[in-house]
Amino acid sequence: MRVPVPSKPSNAALPNAGLCYEPTSVLDLCRSPSPSPCPATVPLFELEDHAALHTMDWDSIMKDLGLHDDSVFKTIHNNDFTPLDHALEFSDVYSNLAYDSENATLDQLVVTHDFNHNDFTDFIEDLIRAADCFDTRQLQVAHVILEHLNQRLRSPGGKPLQRAAFYFKEALLSLLSGSNRTPPGLSSPVHCIRAFKAFSGISPIPMFSIFTTNQIVLDHAASSFMHVIDFDIGLGIHYASLIKEIADKAPPAAEMPVLRITAVLPEEFSVESSLVSDNLNQFALELGIRVQIEFVPLRTFEAISFKAVKLVGCETSAVLLSPVIFRHLGNAAAAFLADLRRLSPGVVVFVDGEGSEEAATASAASFRCGVLSSLEYYTMMLESLDASTTAGEEGSG
After folding, report:
1. Which Pfam families does the annotation name (predicted)?
2. For residues 198 and 347, what is the distance between their CA atoms, to the nearest angstrom?
3. CA nearest 271: which of 179, 329, 197, 187?
């Protein structure tokens, strides 16, 4: 997470406002060779975040949506592709692809994650060679490699590296087939809720992101009128602890605090947006906080930028960003950042829970480097989840 903080939290135009960056990534902590000792006590705010997250009535949320909680995910294979005009023998593919020194990184990846080189290097080599074909525009060759790999990686099972490789193989195949939409069976609200519940229970990333983001927003709250412009509201879970903290800090005789949330989101998330609005309003009402939630369609925001957001002069504004909005904006990202600077919010928080910064740096060199960097990142994440699950099972046993 990178947090640009202006010298003064003000909504007035600051043409020469200096920005400083504070690296606070949970991934940096995980990768640190000299981790800091654990504190003797856990901050109360962090405990409240944890309680708010894990006491959410997930069953009630899904019932409100009228959804059936099917605990068995169906694996969807994307194996129907248009035959190539000129079929290539797989044995001929490697004759035009040199194994150069860049594969030293591949060897390091396999060794780092304690895999048998002979068992795992072959299909990882295939994956990286296919990515290399995207750089050289040899898409037919990439198709042949991935079709061959598709026979060997039929399901997301096995060790973390193998599971990560399966999903990258599927992603590359979807690029070739021109289908970049997530299968509906894996993106329904019930699946999103179940996935977030499970992920937040075994990974520190959601808790770290929520705690850090809320603390920064509260630190820059200069008045009882706060406006958060959120470009990745998701299920709105992170606002539960923020609302509770605002209520706890409000002086007894003071005017009721007001939290205004403007969420920019795609039109297809209308079901989730209704759920977020109803739950947060009910939660805030119980704590004596006024919450106003407005949803701005992404298409509208793309057309008129921050003119689509209602701004009030007496409010302290905060903007929450994530890699999601930059994927949507594409080439318009530079104009978006220019508009954001002119808006001059009190604080801008960028929550990077996907390792996008490192992947973007690697992708700038080549598509192949970006794939390899991302493969390593998600392999590490899957290993972390496996370790957390194993530790939990041992503790309960």
Report:
1. GRAS
2. 31
3. 187
Cβ neighbours around 290 below 10 Å, total: 15
Domains of the chain listed by start with CATH number: 26-31+46-65+204-351 (3.40.50), 98-181+358-390 (no CATH)
Chain position carrying tokens 């519940």: 197
* Mean pLDDT, 10 residues at a time, the chain of 397 residues: 43 42 44 42 44 50 50 41 40 38 46 49 84 90 90 85 90 80 56 76 80 89 85 87 88 81 87 84 89 93 94 88 86 93 92 63 71 86 80 61
